[in-house]
Amino acid sequence: MLDASDFSERLWMILDEATGSEQQLRNILGAKPKVIIVAFDREFRRASDNLRNNIEVPGESEDALKDLYAMVVSKGKDFYDHIVNHPERILLDTKPGDPCYFGVAGSVLLHLFGEEED
Q1: Spatial distance between the Cα atoms of 114 and 110, rounded to a whole number of angstroms
Q2: Backbone angles phi, psi at 58, to 5 degrees
Q3: What does the alpha-carbon distance between residue 37 and residue 90 come to, in Å, rounded to a whole number?
Q4: pTM score, whole prediction
């Protein structure tokens, strides 16, 4: 399983700068060039997919799992590594109401450029 160092430092810097606020993330991404927004979205999805492919959580729906893995990424580099090192803690340390930025970059792309990243 990949850890946080296997993903772009820019991903983690932008997430850290968002300070848990979806609106702040929208503002940050909205001020970046399209290529940066696309790169952020790809890395976010790659980090989330890494968790999906390596951490099984029985009894959860596909949608719930997508949100759960996105929450882990959304909480930043240190939390991501915490879950990578202690996957059994994913349900204990991730709570409803935690930031979940899945799709935010796509929404910003759609708003600014009239298109989403695939």
Answers
A1: 4
A2: -70, 150
A3: 27
A4: 0.94
Q: What is the DSSP string of 68-94?
A: HHHHHHHT-HHHHHHHHH-GGGHHHH-
DSSP state of 6: G
**Cα 12 from Cα 112, distance rounded (Å):** 23
Q: Which two tokens stand for residue 20?
A: 């848990």
pLDDT in tens, 71-108: 999 999 999 999 999 999 999 999 989 999 999 999 99
Q: What is the pLDDT of residues 21-39, one digit of tens each?
A: 999 999 999 999 999 999 9
Tokens read off for 77: 């580099």
